[in-house]
Amino acid sequence: MNMIPTEVRALKPADYKSAVKPVWCPGCGDHSVLVAFQRAMAELALPPEQVAVVSGIGCSSRIPSYTSCYGFHGVHGRALAVASGLKVARPDLTVVVASGDGDGFSIGGNHFLHACRRNLDLTYIVMDNRIYGMTKGQPSPTTESDWDTAIAPGGTGLSPFHPLVIALASGANFIARGFTGDVGGCAKLIVDAVRTPGFSFVQILSPCVTFRSDQQKAWKSLVREAIVPETDDPARAARRLMTDDGFNLGVLYRGKRLPYQPRPSANLTPSHFESEFAI
Ligand code: SF4
Ligand code: MG
């Protein structure tokens, strides 16, 4: 065991690994997100005890137990609610929230809107495989309308949710997209997201090799570095995201909103809490 305190030794990606072995399917994109997260934390030189990873439910939401940081594997769709409470109570912590497209955009869709609007200093990573992986492959909010399966014969016929457009319209301060085929690129985006104040949303295209075996190969040929440089102008970003095909990678928007800081109420003093909640 390394007994040198974290504040005096250089941190390596391995310092963010826990002893728990991931149970993800071999080849699942989520393995790469875990590696990217560990690289990003080492690059940021954040001691594991100063980082909290909060998740909901789903394959991707298993990630907190695979890191040595504080973690909370929570309730379906409620990761952002838990993380918001944590960040308000402990603004000194770096809070990273992990989710999937089902957990984050369907069950947790309402929390997503309001987390963007509130703009607390959180980093929200959504591992998007356009499917509910843990529950055996149902279409999710980001599934293509014509994805033909036994569960949805002929496709759902529903337009997919565009999370980046929704994030921009709701007030997120940083919007980016990565692909697990480029772990270094994902790590860079996570570093950038953590460093940018306010609510940072990073969608990571993370193939499900078990229920969507078509994805890995197809996405590899479709993704590209976004050629238009990032913008801080919401109107320009909106025009660009409305025509985005879902495969432009990189930072697509970085705003200038200051993060939300709860103001102490004149009516709620520490002594109020002591008397209210004294046991
Ligand atoms: Fe990954 Fe899909 Fe397996 Fe879940 S079911 S661990 S998303 S490959
Ligand atoms: Mg999913």
From TrEMBL:
A Pfam family matched in the record: TPP_enzyme_C
UniProt entry tagged with the keyword Hydrolase: no
GO molecular-function terms, A-Z: oxidoreductase activity, acting on the aldehyde or oxo group of donors, iron-sulfur protein as acceptor; thiamine pyrophosphate binding
InterPro entries xrefs: 2-oxoacid:Fd_oxidoreductase (IPR051457), OFOB (IPR011896), THDP-binding (IPR029061), TPP_enzyme_TPP-bd (IPR011766)
Cofactors required: [4Fe-4S] cluster
Keywords: Oxidoreductase
SUPFAM superfamilies given in the database record: Thiamin diphosphate-binding fold (THDP-binding)
Keyword Transport applies: no
Limits of the Thiamine pyrophosphate enzyme TPP-binding domain: 57-204
Gene3D superfamilies tied to this protein: 3.40.50.970
GO BP terms: cellular respiration; small molecule metabolic process
Recorded superkingdom: Bacteria
NCBIfam families for the chain: PorB_KorB
Protein name, entry field: 2-oxoglutarate ferredoxin oxidoreductase subunit beta
Source species of the chain: Rhodopseudomonas pseudopalustris
